[in-house]
Automatic annotation (TrEMBL):
A single cellular component GO annotation: plasma membrane
Lineage, uppermost ranks: Bacteria, Bacillati, Actinomycetota, Actinomycetes, Propionibacteriales
Keywords for the protein's UniProt record, in alphabetical order: Oxidoreductase
Gene: npdG
One GO MF term attached to the UniProt entry: cupric reductase (NADH) activity
Protein name as catalogued: NADPH-dependent F420 reductase
Organism: Nocardioides luti
Length: 235
């Protein structure tokens, strides 16, 4: 693994730097995690699938490696956290805090990309849940003081990401964080997915509304039978 510099870099250098990093996806056997892992592997990045079950992670990794021709391996979440330079958190909200608290040492010194949306569901549909720290990304930052936490990939359709027939995913990804070099690198990570563009969306204190917006997109999808995303204009 290589360490992530916090110094300024050029846009081209960020893209090249990704090739030197292993991307781990915690919760990589779930819909969102698997879809992101598929796209990163297809882009030529080295990917580690994490799951509560190392066996299940290995099976998913083998499937994605065969489908994409990429380098994909599997491990339990702790093993994946240790293996990655950039670690994407794509686990269910109800297990988010407990998982990260237990992995704080393994994630120290790394960029942690949190894409978890704290949502509830009832007969009226999806709605945003209150989070004591303000958002899932802020909770991650509080639990991982020695990591660089970035919020991203909250509003991307898991269905589109994991569908090999979908060549391009027509959406922008809002990237939030405190360290410019880290958000630049995660924007470059988003850019590896055809059709996707990473856009800086502010500091972590602005993550709540980005996470909550997923509830609105779910409502759009149900009404219009779609897999909606976001586009930022004039940028």
């Amino acid at each position: 693994m290589s360490e992530v510099s916090t110094g300024s870099t050029t846009e081209g250098a960020e893209g090249r730097a990704l090739a030197d990093h292993t991307v781990s996806v915690l919760g990589g056997t779930g819909p969102q995690g698997r879809g992101l892992a598929r796209r990163f592997a297809a882009a030529g990045l080295t990917v580690v699938i994490g799951s509560r079950s190392a066996e299940r992670a290995g099976e998913t990794a083998a499937e994605l490696a065969e489908a994409t021709g990429g380098t994909v391996t599997g491990a339990d979440n702790a093993g994946a956290a240790a293996a990655g330079d950039i670690v994407v958190v794509a686990v269910p909200w109800d297990g988010h805090g407990e998982l990260l608290a237990g992995l704080a040492d393994a994630l120290a010194g790394k960029i942690v990309v949190d894409c978890v949306n704290p949502l509830g569901f009832d007969k009226q549909g999806a709605y945003a849940l209150p989070v004591e720290e303000g958002s899932a990304a802020q909770q991650a930052a509080a639990l991982l003081p020695d990591s660089t936490v970035v919020g991203a990939f909250h509003n991307v359709s898991a269905v589109l990401l994991d569908d090999p027939a979908v060549e391009t995913v027509d959406t922008d990804v809002l990237v939030l964080g405190e360290v410019r070099a880290a958000t630049d690198l995660v924007q470059a990570l988003a850019d590896t997915i055809p059709g996707v563009r990473g856009i800086f969306g502010g500091r972590l204190r602005n993550a709540h509304q980005v996470e909550a917006l997923t509830a609105n997109l779910i409502s759009v999808n149900r009404r219009y039978k779609a897999h909606s995303g976001l586009r930022i204009t004039d940028v």
